[in-house]
Amino acid sequence: MKKANKKKKTHVPFRMNMLFFVVFLLFSALIFRLGIVQIVQGEDYQRKIERTEDVTVNTSVPRGRIYDRDGEIVVDNVPQNAITYTRSSSPNAEEMMQTAEKLARLIEKETDQVTERDMKDFWIGKNEAKAKAKVTDKEWTAYENEELTEDDLYDLQLERITESDLNELTDAELEVLAIYREFTSGYPQTPQIVKNENVTDVEYAVVSENLSSLPGVNTTTDWERAYSHDGTLKTVLGNISSSKEGLPKEMAEYYLARDYSRNDRVGKSYLEYQYEDVLRGQKTKMKNITDKSGNVLDSEIITEGQRGKDLVLTVDMDLQTAVEKIIEEELQQAKSGYHPFLDRAFVTMMDPNTGEILAMAGKKYEVVDGKAEIFDFALGNMTTSYAMGSAVKGATVLTGYMTGVNEPGEQIVDEPLNFAGTRSKSSWFNRGGAFSISDTYALMRSSNVYMFKTAMEIGGARYIRNGSLKINEQAFPTMRNYFSQFGLGVKTGIDLPGEQAGYKGYVDQPGKILDFAIGQFDTYTPLQLAQYVSTIANGGYRMQPRIVKEIREPVSETNKIGPIAEEIEPTVLNTLDLEPGWIEQVQEGFRLVAQASQGTASSYFGDAPYKMAAKTGTAEGVYDGPLKEKNKNEMTWNVTLVGYAPYDNPEVAMAVVVPWAYEDSSSSIPINHNIGRRAMDKYFELKEKKVTEKPAEAVVDQEIITKQETTNLKDE
Questions:
Q1: Where is the Penicillin-binding protein transpeptidase domain (predicted)?
Q2: By CB atoms within 10 Å of each CB, which of 122, 161, 342, 411 scores lowest?
Q3: Is 212 one of the annotated active-site residues of the chain?
């Protein structure tokens, strides 16, 4: 027994020694590993802890300028001092608030954009104890029992904040809130404008000096659109989004897929929208160096940006502003009488050989807060449509030729037309007689009966006194098809979005083709009317109207136009299928309107030195303007005028449209004629002025180019 006990005692120390030895080995391995980590790989791990990341971002550049056809700046960019904030990818609300408080001590920030909800959120953050007290013990118990969520409690606090509570916020705190609001509205790693209006040089300098203590804040130069002619053509030029608005929500995905940032300003309407790809420019690429938390440590430019390319318009701004003034004056004079429905007028002037819009003016008369004001409504030339009356009779005559029912020079009896069950239909100058007239006479005197009988022939009908009128139902689509070849009833193709095609009247009786033939059924836009008369003026070529003449490369020099990047060539949309002499016959009729003693416009244009060709129009119908709800079934008259000059070598075509000009013939006013004569006079006056100001060689070169362009089009 003693020997056994002795052996057992010597065995226990051996196992303990083995255990200590194993522990020693493990401890030694751990020390060895720690040595490697700290000594050998320590610097690598330290770099990982302090690592930075390079994040590439794009910053916007100024948009391209817009010039008129003579190189005068219409839309420019005005530089502005700006203060921005770039939010980190992992924002810390407390740090952002501290930065906002520091910045508020350096700049003045308007608080008009701060909402009540912003103030309530801010109040809760500043008054945690008071905010907690807004929740009852019963509600806290419900929260602890998971019957209410944190969001539910927060909503309760918001509801119970009183006006008195919000009045506790000082002006200084509201200013901090306004700045913080800008900080949080931006996107990570994208500069957000904090202030870009009325940033003083002192504010700019002080903030620049303190950037090291204002993480994410930077000073830069921003820009804003400036218009050299306040209000002129503004509706056609369009708008851009603001720096606060950024990408329009409905098109955000479209722009983001094209390398835009969410706070980029883009064209929202018309010219700015249509030519967005040209005007936007090449963005500056910047590299933001950030720490592991996403805080911006430094920024550097990788690629310098370039402002957008410039647009040169076809519009002559001297002519545009002059025509707008003419419309305003004539509207004001007409409104001095009793013309309650008259509230707008339009003028489109274009080069009939190229389709270039020389002026597109529109004005709208409104009473705002008891005061009469006139607003720009140039856009109405392509977005509103009206019955144009006899101005479209040139299309009716040519449709008669092209369908084979009439021949140039053919005589037709003008007489009152009496159909069974309807009142007599006649020409304004012949209420009871019957005599033969030619096509040119019909245009000169504006015969309705010539147009009625032409439409009847197209519809397979012949006039029988007191008989019924039986018109083939295909008369409407036939005449509408031919009218569309002049641009009436179809979109003109102008390089602007939002163009309207007009309204096709509802055909419940085939006999309404007679009204269609004299322009009192379907409606057309003033721009369509200008395209129509240009087609007659240039010999049968429907030209695509355009408002942009050239795209130019940007240059840094102010008021200088860069080299041409793209010249937009004239486009012929279609050519009328005419026999020799047909178009000349209608052109002669238009000449007689303005030049012959019996012409309906001769008293206004007969003495014009530029030798006008024209066609007047009136259209009677039920008033359908903005006051129609209070004036149902009121009858009004639209007055129109189309023309071109000189009649033997047209260089300018014009359409004048004045809807709802008067209520009955006794109160008629020649506002369309007055506007048309003054607008044409101004065109040739400005032309003469510019010719005398240019060197003789430049004038000759321009004349050669214009003639060559016209020759090329006719050769096609």
A1: 346-673
A2: 411
A3: no
